[in-house]
Specification:
The protein contains four helices and four strands, in the order ααββββαα. By secondary structure, it is an alpha+beta fold. It has one domain. Strands 1-2-3-4 form a four-stranded antiparallel β-sheet. The chain is elongated and about 85 Å long. The termini are far apart.
Length: 241
Amino acid sequence: MNLKRNAFTLVELLVVIGIIGVLSGILLPSLCKAKARARVAVCKSNLRQIGLALTMYVGEFQRYPDKGSWMTTALRWNTNQKLLPYTADSRNVFYCPAHAARWATWESAMDLRNFDRLSYGYNSFGSSAWVWQNLGLGATRARPIAEAQVRAPSDMIALGDAGTDKLWDLLLNPHEEPPPASSEDQTTINSWLPANRHSGGANVVFCDGHVEYAAQKRWIEKTDPARRRWNHDHEPHRETW
């Protein structure tokens, strides 16, 4: 008796594999774009929540937290938290899902059980790279920035996606100074730039709580309108460029 066996021929298998390859080529970019859009949406939601927390803090104390108060958000053991109580003690809002944090050499020697990652930097220095000018939202605890000192809250950068994807890119600053040759793995002023993790750009929340997205080069460009947004007096301060 002659039994007929049902099986794919080699040509049929190759055709099926080719079709799968074509479909993968069509669908994978769409899936990647969808995932990227989802990460952007989560990031913007995080920043809106932090912006609301900042608004509540300022409403209660009539001043902005300084850079030290922001940086302690990464310290789990620190009981003097400024913004964390206003986020219902949720630390997840301080972490951007697109932040691919890398371990620096100096970080690998630390006990990281006491630390949380921060994806967002605080605009404490303004358009300046130096503490003494205090053009941002508070470079030092000794010279807090009062709520009334921020002349244009809707055009004043508060915080946003920062850095070079180290574990802690704590501040936000428009200066492009290269890091010292001897400190490749250290957090430097160069890592405080608005990030480029979202298709070459960063999400930023302003003092009135609204969130904007722009390419990195737009946030740091040396123009009067761009640099005014960094300073609480809403002046461009060309001397800091």
